[in-house]
Amino acid sequence: MNMFPRLGLGLGLRTPHFSRAASGDCAGVDWFEVITENALVAGGNPRRVLRAAREHRPLALHGVSLSIASTDPLDEVYLSRVRALCDELEPAMVSDHLCWTSLGGHQTHDLLPVPYTREALDHVVARVAHVQDKLGRRILLENPSTYAVFAGDELTEPAFLAELATRADCGILLDINNVYVSSKNHGWNAVDYLAAIPAQRVGYFHLAGHTHDGALLIDTHDQPVCDDVWALHAAALARFPGASTLLERDDNVPDFDTLVAELQRASAA
Amino acid sequence: MRDDHVTDLLGPMTLAEQLRAFHAVVVGAAPPSQGAELVRADGVDPATRLRVYALAYYSRIHGVLVEHYPKLHALLGAEGFDVLIRHYLRAHPPHDFSLREAGDKLSKFLFEAPPGGARDYLHIDLARLERARTEAFDGPDAKALTRDAVAALPPEEFPGLRLRLVPTARFVLLSTNADDVWDALENDQPMPTPRTDVRRELLVWRRDLTVIHRSLEEDEASALHRITGGGTFANVCELFAARADATERAIELLLRWLDAEILAAR
After folding, report:
1. What is the per-residue burial (b if ≥16 Cβ within 10 Å, else e) of A217-248?
2. Is residue B225 helix, strand or coil?
3. How far is CA B111 from CA A3, B101, B107, B114, B184, in A?
4. B54, B157: one domain
5. Which of A36, A110, B126, B219 could pair covalently with A61 via S-S, beta carbons 3.0-4.6 A apart?
6. Does residue B135 form part of some domain?
7. Which pLDDT value is given to residue B12?
8. Which A-chain residues 71-130 have CB contacts (< 8 A) with chain B?
9. B264 - beta bridge partners?
């Protein structure tokens, strides 16, 4: 049994679609995911939109700055602010990425890959426990798109993620496009990847588009979801039947109705 | 990266060592080729793999700074802005979890260590104005003080009345006509001749969801500074004591501020 709420079909809420979300005129979208850091502002339009949107649909918070695998101390001020935001918006789920973004206080604002070693696993397990204590809730961690894996890795990515989720008692946000992109970039088997993930830990899926850049696929979120990723999503739905689905688009963003139409393909899978 | 013989002696790299070596490549402190032994090839040159991260680091922050400093970007051109940001990021790497803060020291950098060495006060002023506008954009909400609320006050309370500016209000002191340049770029008008013989104070604030800036008259600026310093309405009126129309001027400014929603509700 999945341990997270079944929310249905969701959309990553971005600025061009603020007015639709705030008005409640968003048939076909069951919930919205909001980038946590974009909501961690004092006021203005973003906060106003979120307060209005949550009157119509459940919200989930999706962070990009937790830096869970960094060897820097966790940012307690950031955690306190996320906790306050959770208290205000009461999100259905709260997530971030299995990655690190800062080192030595230097923020890269990029989702950098984690060495999949036993040392890193112990480190991240302890930090997830601290974060969950601080936020007073179970979080979900997303598998990132990766373009490099460390030579010293001792575990595969899905094995690392599975053991992390079990030991830290956290959830998994399974990004289907990222599974596909990383599998292509490193020669992994995407279906084997899904099989290694514990079913009850997956709260929801991300879907997005990517681009080809020479020998590598890049997770650009600027294209529609490709057919191969839709096929992998269908396989994921069969393996993780309780999980919700969320469509992301960050660049080359089409109008709201076009995205909603694309999202509906997830229900037909 | 450690040499092979060091690894043989000390064992595999620790997590901290791996992150430090990777981070150096991402932020440009080491070339991607230096990370060749850090990551697996798996059919693709490791330097190519690492270059994706180095490029993403720069392009993400550069993109946000273009959004936050659109007029400076337009004034410098894409190439000039790119040179500026590359120098800036080396001097002031991002320190805050929010990308909103990535450009918070750009005007300071332009003042202290401009690329090429020549300080350009128009660039500095434009950066300060654009930063103030960014801060006002999503600064704290506040209800504005209204004419009706002021009219409802008993007259005897006016002298001791302590006004407050809305929390998004910021003063920007210029030594150039950067605001004229901003206006020209905003409205696609011919660029004014740059001037560096100006002393002009702007107020930036957000009215509902719209960020506004305008230049302040000298006595108006003094009055607003007196308000932010905690002065009463009587203290503000003292500024105009030498004028024959002192009361009229104080009321004129008060009504202007109320209509522009510069003052916060009590």
Report:
1. bbbbbeebbeeebbebbebbbeebebbbbbbb
2. helix
3. 54, 18, 6, 6, 23
4. no
5. A36
6. no
7. 87
8. 71, 75, 78, 100, 102-110, 112-113, 115, 117, 119-120, 123
9. B144
Instruction: Give the mutation candidate from A98, A147, A153, A154 for the B interface (greatest B CB count, under 10 A).
Output: A147
Q: Number of folded domains in chain B?
A: 2
For A37, the closest of B13, B97, B209 (CB atoms) is B97
Using a CB-CB cut-off of 8 Å, the residues of chain A touching B168 are 43
Same domain, B248 and B148: yes
Q: Are residues B62 and B146 in the same domain?
A: no
Q: Nearest-CA distance from A23 to chain B in Å? A: 17
Per-residue pLDDT of A48-62, as tens digits, reads 999 999 999 999 999
Q: List the end-to-end C-alpha distance of chain A, in Å, as a whole number.
A: 21
Taking only residues 35 to 54 of chain A, the set having a beta carbon closer than 8 angstroms to any beta carbon of chain B reads 37, 40-48
Cβ contact A103–B19 (<8 Å): yes
| Beta strand pairing call for A140-142 and A171-175 | parallel
- The ipTM, to two decimals, is 0.96
Residue B96: inside a domain, yes or no?
Answer: no
d(CA A242, CA A204): 8
Q: Which residue of A has its CA nearest to B101?
A: A107
Domain A9-268: top CATH class: alpha beta
By DSSP bridging, strand A171-175 and strand A216-218 are: unpaired
Domain map of chain A by residue range? Answer: 9-268
- In sequence order, which ranges of B98-200 are alpha helices (DSSP H)? 106-112, 121-137, 147-151, 178-186
pLDDT of amino acid B8: 60
Domain for residue B11, yes or no?
yes
Which residues, other chains included, contact A110 with Cβ-Cβ below 8 Å and sequence gap of 6+?
Answer: A101, B26, B53, B56, B57, B60
Domain that holds residue B6: 1-68
C-alpha count within 13 angstroms, C-beta hemisphere, residue B39: 31
Q: Of A78, A240, A120, nearest to A173 (Cα)?
A: A240
pLDDT tens, position by position, A63-102: 999 999 999 999 999 999 999 999 999 999 999 999 999 9
To the nearest 10°, report the CA torsion of B213, B219, B225, B230.
-130
Kind plus residue range of the DSSP H or E element containing B206: strand B200-207
Token pair belonging to A61: 């918070």
Is position B226 within any domain? yes
pLDDT < 50: residue spans in chain A: none
**Of B24, B45, B68, which one is at a domain's C-terminal end?**
B68
Is pLDDT of B10 > 80?
no
CA of A18 vs chain B CAs: smallest distance (Å): 13
Cross-chain Cβ contact B40/A148 below 8 Å = yes
Other beta carbons within 10 angstroms of residue A77's beta carbon come to: 10
The pairing of strands A93-97 and A100-103 is unpaired
Chosen domain end from B68, B89, B116: B68
Select from B37, B39, B52 the Cβ nearest to the Cβ of A216.
Answer: B52
Whether residues A78 and B97 touch (CB distance < 8 A) is answered with yes
